[in-house]
Amino acid sequence: MSRLSVVLPAYNEELMVGKTCRVLHEVLTEAGISYELVLVDDGSNDRTWEEITKAGEKDANILGVHFSRNFGKEAAVYAGLAQATGDVVAVMDCDLQHPPETLIPMYHLWEEGWEVIEGVKKSRGTESLLHKESAGFFYGIMSKATGVNMQNASDFKMMDRKAVNSILSMPERNMFFRATSSWVGFKTTHVEFEVHDREAGQSKWSTWSLVKYAFTNIVAFTTVPLQFVTIIGGACFGCSLILIIYSLVQFFAGRAVEGYTTTLIVLLLIGSAIMLSLGIIGYYIAKIYEEVKRRPRYIISQIVRGKKDVYQEVNHDRSH
C-alpha cells in the first residue's frame, strides 16, 4: 500500500502542533490513507519541540526532527523531504491555514498519475489590507524575476517520490522550494483551496520579512538582478550622453549657465547607480561565498519517531 508523508515545518507553533497532528490523523485515517507526519522544529524558542514529542507518544506515525538552531523555513522543508519515506510527499504549513482535507483530492490525483500537485490559493484569507498588498507586490516581483507564477502559489503541494528525489539531488545551499518544485517539471496539475484563518499564534511574516524573503529567493533562483545592473548602467550612460550634448549646445550658443547644479545632479545620479549596482553584485558574491564553503543547510540535534529516539550520529542533511 502506498504511503503519504506530510512535511510540516514548525517555528514557534506550540499552540498548533498538537491540534494539527490530531486533525491530520483523523482526516487521513478516515480516508484510508497510510501516512507519516514529519514535523521539523526550526529552532523554536517556545515549547514546540515538547509538543512534537508529546504528539509522537500518541501517534507512532509521527517523526519529529529538531534543529540545533533556527535555519529558516526553506531548510526545514528540505530536511523534511530528506527524512520523509513515503511514496508521495506533501508539504504544508503547521498552522492549519492549508486545509488538511485538500490532501485527499491531491492524493487521488497522484493515484491517477499526476506527479506534482500544486495547491493554489483562491484568496489570501483575512489578512490585513497592508499585508495583502505587500504580499501581492513582492510576489509579483518574484514572479517576473523567477519566471514562475507566484501570485497565488504556496508551499502547499504534493509530489511523487521522483520529484522529491530530483529536488534532493540539487547541490545548492540556498534553495527556493516554491520555485524549485515547479522548475523540476514532471506531470503537474493543481488544486484550489481557501486559506483558513490562523486559530492560534501569530503569522511569522511581516512586511519587512517579505522583502527579505523575496530578495533572498530571487537571488537564489535567478540572475535577473544582475541584468538589472546592466540596465541601470545603460540608463545612466544615456542620461549622461544627453546632458553632455545639452551642455555642449548651450556652450557653443553662448548660453552656458555658471554653477554646479548640473554637475552635482550627474554625480549623484551616477554615484547612486554605482552604489546600487555594487550592492546587488556584492549580494551575489556573498551567496557564492556561502555556496563554496559547503556548509550544511541545517544541523539536526535530535530525531524522534513515536516514543523512540532514532537520531543516529548524523548532524547534517543526507546530501553530504
Explain briefly what this protein structure is:
With 320 residues, this protein is of the alpha/beta class. The chain has two domains: 3-124 and 152-202 and 295-309, Spore Coat Polysaccharide Biosynthesis Protein SpsA, Chain A; 224-293. Helix content is 48%, strand content 16%.
Give a verbal description of the structure.
Its main location: membrane. Its EC number is 2.4.-.-. It is a multi-pass membrane protein. Residues 313-320 have low confidence and may be disordered. The protein has 2 domains: 3-124 and 152-202 and 295-309, Alpha-Beta Complex (Spore Coat Polysaccharide Biosynthesis Protein SpsA, Chain A), CATH 3.90.550; 224-293. With 320 residues, it is an alpha/beta fold. The longest helix is centred in the C-terminal third of the chain and has 33 residues, at 261-293. The chain has 10 helices and 9 strands.
SS element count, helices:
10
Gyration radius from CA atoms, angstroms: 24 Å
- Specify the CATH class of the largest domain: Alpha Beta
Low-pLDDT sequence parts: 313-320
Query: Remind me, CATH topology of the largest domain?
Result: Spore Coat Polysaccharide Biosynthesis Protein SpsA, Chain A
**Helix residue percentage:** 40-55%
Largest sheet: 9 strands, mixed
Widest sheet: strand order?
7-5-6-4-1-2-3-8-9
CATH superfamily of the largest domain: Spore Coat Polysaccharide Biosynthesis Protein SpsA, Chain A
Give the mean pLDDT: 76
Tell me the distance between the termini: 31 Å
Note the run of SSEs as H and E. EHEHEHEHEHEHHEHHHEE
CATH architecture of the largest domain: Alpha-Beta Complex
The shape, in one word, is elongated
Work out the count of structural domains: 2
Helix/strand/pairing class, anyone? alpha/beta
Count of DSSP strands = 9
Strand content: 15-25%
